[in-house]
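User: Hi! I have a protein structure encoded as tokens and I'd like to know what sequence might fold into it. I'm fairly new to this, so please keep things simple.
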């Protein structure tokens, strides 16, 4: 059965799951659930693997039982391998709401990835059946399958299936195609001037060369990341999309940026974490060390045989990783109880938990897996070590990992940006500007508001407000904030100087989303899920009027440079409303896959970027920029991995030349506004992104800008904006710099440029 929803659940949650599946089936949603669909005699693992490959949506019925189930972890690993769209619903939530969300996402997944699923299953079944002619695709189906090449690279079996289908179609139409071609060639030969024909042939040859070199480069990057950097470093001469893909892939592989050698093979790291020195105990018992900040030193120095000092003592977080010999599954324990099962891509050899217990690094046969413990997924694979890794250790402050690989010690930077505030037990909901340029505010879900110094992250002031914080809007000038408590259906204003809190009077029918202050600060515009926009006078905190919004409701509201309100709806629609007159809402655009829009970022130009549930999928992420006639031109693009389909935050840099999208898996993707590619993905930020804010660099006089990212894992991170870095030319320079660094570290040896990628023989790590 193709085009279904695969239901991943724990048997302990069966009662609730049965109700959800029954509700979905009544709606016409096809579901695959193991107890109903696996024959008694069929091996469980193989049948489940086939079912996940054939599904459009991988539905996780999330609970503590699911998180600790080995079978569920295996299913999740299959979903990642087949790049399935993943949706999580919480066991115990309202059945109707969970069914609505599942039906909505299943429809999007089918529309956007249904053809890819069909190709995968058809090719698999054709291969298992002996590759006979009866199972091949017809001409129209084949063309749909071939069109997927622009979105992803087919597997070898899929390529063979498409090629065999093409050959059969060609055989059927051989005579007519040949005759038509001969007639066309004869006509063009008499009509096309020799010079024109030569120019056309040159362009075709050039495009074919770029296409073939891109495909070759991507395969080389997978096998040898240093060879991938060679290709990227040599391809900065133009801004073609093909070269952009090479730069993205080559620079996305985390490689060591520091290393030194030992006189003897290393046995283990001496300390629990690394502080000022990296100390190693060799197999012969001798001890060696190097200062962590002495990056120019390429060899270790002997140290005293005295016992190791207390430097780098690991904080007792109560979290540990347990391995099984030869198994690719790890168990994450928290305070003695099983917390997570995580399936890796290869057998695990050793593992270490980060000091803040947010991450774990696991040495495997294919590299060092960086595991996000909160999500239970592999976020990145650290590669480039010259030999298999035998021991790992974290830097005391996190953000860096050291590894033993034979007689070499290598290190990776695994933190993106600069951490300003780190509260692992907190949930940051919003980051918003303060009244001066030296500070900003960050709000926690539990009602704590902290004023921070932007240069150091030092907490200058703390306020506590009642209730939950689901969203915050700051008034111009930074003296007042409006706080949404969606659980209570209320909005409260906070005087950020005195900490005084007042309730805002709303109509009974208004369930508020994140509001927006008017540019003069006198009014607050509150979007209601019911469809209206309530206008509140900030002095009296009373409703003055109501603007009729779309009937489907309003989830996002922001201000355009023209002075109009921009509204985003749960149906993927973007409207503009004249704020002063409160005239009828004008539809600007309907996003192709009807995502639930959570926010609309506005940039100079103007530029618009609506994001929400579904963002990252093909057709669900669209940007707009103004044409000369004042209308908007919308462009769609594919952004994130399939397991990141929820974006709650987006921002432009102040020039409008670049934009960023923050996803629920913690990744932040930076794009150039005009070309969209090459993009830069920051995947080493812990916790789902909840809010982003662009501000000029403190003390820069407006000459530089920073992006601030707040996550639900209690992190506030500062990232410098650099639109000029998001070009093929700039990325080629970065690739060349990484190669020079790798050569200096004795991890890479340049070879003569042959014009063809030649993978070097290296260890798999």
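Assistant: Happy to help. Inverse folding works backwards from shape to sequence: for each of the 765 positions I chose a residue that suits the local structure. Here it is:
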């Amino acid at each position: 059965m193709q085009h279904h929803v695969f239901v991943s659940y724990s048997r302990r949650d069966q009662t609730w799951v049965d109700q959800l599946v029954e509700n979905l089936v009544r709606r016409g949603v096809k579901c695959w659930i193991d107890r109903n669909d696996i024959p008694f005699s069929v091996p469980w693992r193989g049948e489940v693997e086939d079912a996940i490959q054939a599904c459009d949506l991988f539905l996780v019925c999330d609970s503590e039982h699911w998180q600790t189930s080995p079978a569920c972890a295996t299913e999740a690993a299959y979903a990642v391998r087949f790049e399935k769209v993943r949706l999580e619903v919480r066991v115990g939530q309202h059945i109707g709401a969970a069914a609505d969300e599942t039906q909505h996402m299943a429809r999007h997944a089918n529309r956007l990835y249904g053809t890819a699923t069909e190709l995968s299953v058809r090719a698999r079944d054709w291969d298992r059946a002996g590759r006979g002619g009866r199972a091949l695709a017809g001409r129209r189906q084949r063309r749909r399958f071939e069109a997927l090449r622009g979105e992803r690279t087919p597997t070898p079996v899929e390529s063979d299936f498409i090629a065999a289908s093409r050959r059969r179609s060609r055989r059927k139409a051989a005579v007519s195609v040949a005759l038509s071609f001969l007639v066309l060639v004869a006509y063009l030969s008499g009509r096309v001037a020799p010079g024109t024909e030569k120019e056309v042939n040159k362009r075709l040859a050039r495009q074919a060369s770029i296409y073939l070199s891109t495909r070759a480069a991507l395969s080389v990057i997978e096998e040898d990341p240093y060879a991938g950097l060679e290709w990227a470093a040599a391809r900065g001469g133009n801004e073609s999309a093909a070269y952009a893909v090479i730069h993205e892939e080559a620079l996305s592989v985390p490689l060591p940026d520091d290393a030194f050698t030992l006189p003897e093979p290393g046995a283990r790291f001496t300390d629990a974490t690394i502080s000022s020195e990296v100390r190693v105990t060799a197999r012969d018992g001798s001890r060696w060390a190097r200062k962590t900040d002495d990056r120019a030193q390429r060899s270790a120095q002997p140290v005293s045989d005295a016992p190791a000092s207390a430097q780098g003592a690991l904080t007792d977080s109560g979290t540990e990783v347990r391995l099984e010999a030869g198994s690719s599954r790890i168990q994450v324990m928290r305070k003695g109880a099983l917390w997570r099962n995580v399936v890796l891509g290869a057998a695990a050899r050793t593992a270490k938990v980060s000091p803040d217990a947010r991450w774990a690094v696991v040495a495997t046969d294919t590299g060092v897996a960086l595991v996000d413990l909160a999500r239970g997924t592999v976020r990145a694979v650290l590669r480039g070590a010259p030999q298999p890794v035998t021991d790992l250790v974290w830097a005391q402050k996190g953000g860096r990992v050291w590894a033993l690989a034979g007689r070499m010690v290598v290190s990776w930077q695994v933190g993106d940006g600069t951490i300003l505030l780190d509260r692992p037990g907190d949930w940051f909901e919003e980051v918003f500007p303060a009244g001066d340029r030296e500070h900003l505010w960050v709000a926690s879900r539990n009602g704590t508001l902290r004023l921070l110094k932007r240069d150091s992250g030092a907490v200058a002031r703390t306020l506590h407000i009642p209730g939950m914080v689901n969203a915050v809007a700051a008034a111009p000038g930074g003296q007042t904030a409006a706080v949404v408590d969606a659980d209570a259906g209320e909005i409260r204003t906070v005087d950020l100087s005195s900490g005084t809190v007042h309730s805002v009077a709303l109509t009974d029918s208004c369930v508020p989303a994140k509001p927006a202050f008017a540019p003069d600060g006198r009014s607050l515009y509150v979007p209601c899920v019911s469809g209206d926009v309530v206008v509140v006078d900030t002095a009296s905190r009373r409703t003055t009027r109501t603007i009729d919004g779309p009937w489907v409701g309003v989830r996002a509201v922001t201000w355009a440079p023209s002075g109009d309100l921009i509204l985003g709806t749960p149906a993927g629609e973007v409207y503009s409303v004249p704020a002063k007159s409160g005239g009828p809402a004008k539809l600007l655009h309907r996003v192709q896959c009807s995502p639930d829009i959570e926010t609309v970022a506005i940039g100079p130009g103007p530029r618009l970027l609506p994001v929400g549930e579904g963002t990252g999928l093909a057709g669900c992420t669209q940007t707009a920029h103004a044409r000369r006639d004042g209308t908007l031109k919308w462009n769609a693009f594919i952004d994130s991995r399939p397991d990141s389909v929820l974006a709650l935050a987006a921002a432009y840099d102040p020039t409008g030349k670049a934009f960023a999208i923050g996803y629920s898996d913690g990744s932040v993707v930076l794009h150039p506004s005009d070309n969209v590619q090459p993009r830069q993905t920051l995947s080493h930020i812990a916790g789902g992104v909840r809010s982003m804010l662009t501000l000029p660099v403190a003390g820069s006089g407006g000459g530089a800008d920073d992006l601030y990212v707040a996550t639900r894992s209690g992190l506030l991170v500062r990232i410098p904006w650099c639109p000029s870095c998001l070009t093929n030319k700039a990325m080629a320079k970065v690739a060349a710099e990484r190669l020079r660094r790798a050569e200096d570290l004795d991890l890479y040896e340049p070879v003569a440029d042959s014009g063809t990628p030649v993978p070097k023989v290296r260890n798999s790590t």
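A useful reference point when you look it over: Residues 175-179, 308-314, 754-765 have pLDDT under 50 and may be disordered. Feel free to ask if any position seems puzzling.
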